[in-house]
Amino acid sequence: MSGKNAHVVIVAGAGPAGMAVAGSLAKAGHEVIILNRDIKFGGLAEYGIFPAKLKLRGGLKKQYWDMLEQPNIHYLGNVSIGNGKDLTVEELRGLGASAVVFSIGAQGTKAIGVEGDSAKGVYHAKDVVYHFNRLPGFGDRPFEMGKHVAVIGVGDVMVDIAHWLIRYKKVERVTAIARRGPVERKYNPKEIRMVCANMDLEGITAEFARIKDRLAAVGQNADEVLKGLTDEFTKCEPKVSETKMGFKFLASPKRILVDANNRMRGLEMEENKLEPKGEDTAAVGLKQYYEFPCDSVVFAVGDKVDETVGLPYKNGVYVTCPNKTGNDPDDSLFQAYDEASGKIVEGVFLAGWARKASEGLVGVAKRDGDWCAEVVSRYLSGRTAGSQAKTVLDKLHTLLKDRKSRPVDVKGLRVLEAAEKAHKGASDCIGEFKFATNEEMLDVIERGKA
Fold it and tell me: What's this model's pTM, rounded to 2 decimal places?
């Protein structure tokens, strides 16, 4: 497809979902302009998966580089979208592209909602993950964890954080805290291999003895469940620290306990019991409280989208159209929708975590991007192409120049990549060198292109 049938589409966000949308639409012959908040492309693939998974990251990086070298894909990094940012949503829509896709992830953070959550030593999982992956703004920020760290949540993110604490911070103890019981744990058994050499088996056995009656009350046999949990501790990665890792089940944090300097000294916990809820169980508080001493806590409780972007927003998500279209995939699920006017936002689509926050990781986001591209293709097939790519890009560059923005194109990324590869000494757990700030990266790029 070329000439009059080729449309210009702007994709905001270059994570796995955005790159999938861009790749599919470019393959169909459209001109795609990718705008990304970070200088580097990749999103969660660059800044969200555990650094040790370098093979996965390397494979994705190669695919993305190949895609960005295509003549009908135009990449600009270091361009943020939202009110008071480089460009507003309205300005994007006014550039003359036939459609705009937002795949900007879930950049908001769910409120912890626990008294004392502003104390020193209280962290969000996303911030910690960004820190050890060297996302500018987080990489060089101090994360003082102390000796004993509690992690709220029992999913794969908890395992990644425990892995970092055990292998690189070498703290004394990590405790994963779950509102429900061991049967309801969410992590992948393969992931637990990263940390199982450090499991405190004695402590875990004692924890099961403590909750065994509450498990029995919902028909769960503590001995069998304990065996199932510990049987997964096979093929463990070699031990590199003396950190002890354990679990605390049927426990909800109610309050952060602080010292005179507003530094965390522990958690006030409530004991829970399990109640059947359909096929599943629910945690119900018993109004029995106790203190759990720890030096810091990481809440791995999910994300929400950033409401300051300027897309229709409600209850932590961007609003999509409620009217089913009967297409497969359903167009309405991907179309931005303004509830006030009761109309879809013409030509504006959502994909990945921007559409469904914290839903799966790289593979799920990619699939969502592919579906979104199908929906956008259907939308474009019924329309006459608007402005040419050159016209849209010229308008875009003029706007960015007026704002004194410093966008980074593929040539700039190549300069940066060469500089980082030439740098001796990988920084801690990443296994590769990364500049910690945007300023350092921009200096390297601008010097290299001069």
Answer: 0.88
